[in-house]
Design goal:
The chain is α/β, with parallel strands linked by helices and about 180 residues long. It is about 25% helix and about 25% strand. Strands 4, 5, 6 and 7 form a four-stranded mixed beta sheet that branches. Helix 1 packs across helix 3.
């Protein structure tokens, strides 16, 4: 369910001396993080070699990772919307009240050091669909690896529909109300 980055104390307090400072634990028990049996829903990263004293752990939820992937996918030209029919209908209601679900249409599975992303989307008519999928993959790989710090092992894309915009409405001189003449 979440990505956890546990960072045990390091530096002078964890080094040789009379013992660890108050509340500090060294050795194998320095990072007691419960890991799920299947290893799919939490990630605990090895602490960096120069972790400052008093550091803690970072937890990144699946929802946050899905949001990063969703924003990256939406940024690609040719993506009309994310999600399947029912989720898009719910998204339209959210848009009407001024709320946005950036993770709609995105599902992630998080492992120890890797993440897999599934995206459902609607493309804009006229967009080359295979090229669009590759652009989305590249954007999601880059965003998740850079912002979250997990290796993306796959990005599965399902294009559920193609949006066809209606004809553009052009204003003609006869449309609308006639201009009022000035009274003299």
């Amino acid at each position: 369910m979440e990505y956890q980055n546990s960072q045990p104390a390091a530096g002078p307090a964890a080094g040789p001396g009379p013992g660890p400072g108050p509340g500090l634990v060294t050795g194998p028990a320095a990072s007691p993080v419960a890991r799920p049996a299947d290893g799919l829903h939490a990630h605990v990263a090895a602490p960096p070699a120069t972790a400052p004293a008093g550091s803690g752990r970072t937890v990144i939820s699946e929802a946050a990772i899905a949001k990063v992937a969703g924003i990256a996918a939406r940024s690609v030209p040719g993506v009309y919307s994310l999600g399947t029919g029912p989720s898009r209908a719910l998204g339209a209601i959210r848009d009407a009240v001024g709320s946005v679900d950036h993770a709609a249409g995105v599902h992630v599975e998080v492992g120890e050091t890797q993440v897999a992303v599934d995206i459902d989307l609607v493309a804009v008519y006229g967009t080359a669909l295979h090229a669009l999928a590759e652009q989305i993959r590249a954007a999601v790989y880059a965003a998740v690896e850079e912002l979250v710090g997990l290796e993306v092992i796959e990005v599965n894309i399902e294009i559920n529909d193609v949006y066809v915009p209606g004809p553009a409405k052009t204003a003609t001189p006869g449309d609308g109300r006639p201009a009022k003449e000035a009274i003299q």
